[in-house]
C-alpha cells in the first residue's frame, strides 16, 4: 500500500514546485480543503479571463480562459440547496473538443461555496450571471442563501421568471449588480426595488411609475415599452432641469400610443435644433451648464423617446 504524501508539510518553495505539476481543476479542488491550501493554490493558478454563472436548465459555473473553458455542472438539482452540497461534473471545452475531466468529488461542496472559493482564488468578480425561468422550480426561501451578498457585474434575467423570484434576485441584501441589469420578467413589488447599477435595460416597463423612475440612479436606462405619458416625461425633464437628477446620461423608451410634443415640452424652454430634436439647458454652476437633447420620432406603430445628456 503506498504511503500518503503530506504535501502541506513541505516548505513553501518546495510545495509550490510540486503544485505546478497539477492541472487547473486539481488545484481548484485542492484549494477547497483549507486556508493554507487556498493560499498555496493561488500562487500557481492561472487566472481566467471571465467567471460566468448560468442557472438555465442546470446550475453551472464557467471559467473562461484564452483558449479553453472549464464548466462545473451540478448533477442533482435537489442537492443544490442542501448543506452538504451536491455532486458535480467538470467539463473542459477547447479547440480540441469537449472532455469530461471529473464526474464528482469526494467532498461535497455546495453551489455557493464553490462560487465563493473561485472569487477568493482568482480575485475576479462574476462577470455575467444568466438566470432563466428554470429557477422558478425552487422555493424562494431556500434560494436566498445562494445569492446573499453575491457581487456580479452583469445580471441577465430571462422571460417568465416568477415575480417573487425576480424580487429575490433584486433585493439590496442579495445580488450586488455593479454594471448592467437586463430585466425581461416583471417583479411583483417594484416600488421596493433599488436600481443603482451603471446600465439598466428593461423589456416591458408598464409597471414603472414616475416616482420609481425618479429613484433610478443609472447612467444609461432603456425602459423598453412603457406606459409613461407625455405629462410624466414633462415632469421628469423638469426634475432633471432643476438639478434633482444628476446620474442619467441616456434614457430611452418606446410606446405604441405615442406622445404629444406640446405636452412633453411644456414649460421647458426647449429649442428645436433639428427635425424631431430639441435641446434644453440646465445651469449647474454660475459658469457651467449641461445640455439635454430630446429626440422623439414615430416608426410604423411605435414612438421612440430618447433623452441624452452632454456635460
TrEMBL record:
InterPro entries, per database record: F-box_Sdz-33, Zygotic_Embryogenesis-Asso
Domain of life of the organism encoding this protein: Eukaryota
Domain Sdz-33 F-box: 197-242
PANTHER family registered for this protein in UniProt: CYCLIN-RELATED F-BOX FAMILY, F-BOX ASSOCIATED DOMAIN-CONTAINING PROTEIN
Listed name of the protein: F-box associated domain-containing protein
Species of origin: Caenorhabditis elegans
Organismal lineage: Eukaryota, Metazoa, Ecdysozoa, Nematoda, Chromadorea
Amino acid at each position: 500500500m503506498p504511503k500518503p504524501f503530506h504535501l502541506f508539510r513541505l516548505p513553501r518553495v518546495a510545495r509550490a514546485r510540486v503544485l505546478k505539476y497539477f492541472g487547473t481543476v486539481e488545484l481548484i479542488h485542492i484549494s477547497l480543503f483549507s486556508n493554507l491550501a487556498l493560499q498555496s493554490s493561488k500562487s500557481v493558478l492561472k487566472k481566467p479571463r471571465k467567471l460566468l454563472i448560468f442557472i438555465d436548465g442546470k446550475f453551472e459555473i464557467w471559467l473562461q480562459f484564452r483558449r479553453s473553458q472549464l464548466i462545473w455542472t451540478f448533477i442533482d438539482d435537489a442537492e443544490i440547496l442542501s448543506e452538504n452540497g451536491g455532486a458535480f461534473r467538470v467539463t473542459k471545452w477547447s479547440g480540441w473538443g469537449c472532455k469530461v475531466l471529473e464526474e464528482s468529488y469526494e467532498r461535497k461542496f455546495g453551489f455557493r461555496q464553490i462560487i465563493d472559493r473561485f472569487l477568493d482564488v482568482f480575485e475576479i468578480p462574476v462577470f455575467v450571471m444568466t438566470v432563466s425561468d428554470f429557477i422558478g422550480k425552487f422555493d424562494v426561501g431556500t434560494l436566498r442563501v445562494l445569492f446573499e451578498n453575491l457581487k456580479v457585474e452583469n445580471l441577465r434575467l430571462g422571460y417568465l421568471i416568477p415575480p417573487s423570484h425576480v424580487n429575490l434576485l433584486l433585493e439590496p441584501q442579495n445580488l450586488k449588480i455593479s454594471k448592467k441589469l437586463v430585466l425581461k420578467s416583471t417583479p411583483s413589488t417594484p416600488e421596493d426595488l433599488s436600481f443603482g447599477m451603471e446600465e439598466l435595460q428593461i423589456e416591458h416597463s408598464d409597471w414603472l411609475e414616475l416616482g420609481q423612475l425618479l429613484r433610478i440612479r443609472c447612467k444609461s436606462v432603456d425602459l423598453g415599452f412603457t406606459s409613461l405619458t407625455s405629462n410624466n416625461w414633462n415632469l421628469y425633464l423638469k426634475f432633471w432641469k432643476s438639478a434633482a437628477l444628476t446620474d442619467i446620461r441616456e434614457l430611452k423608451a418606446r410606446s405604441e400610443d405615442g406622445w404629444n410634443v406640446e405636452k412633453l415640452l411644456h414649460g421647458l424652454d426647449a429649442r428645436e435644433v433639428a427635425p424631431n430634436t430639441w435641446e434644453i439647458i440646465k445651469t449647474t454652476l454660475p459658469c457651467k451648464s449641461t445640455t439635454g437633447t430630446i429626440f422623439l420620432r414615430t416608426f410604423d406603430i411605435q414612438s421612440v423617446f430618447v433623452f441624452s445628456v452632454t456635460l
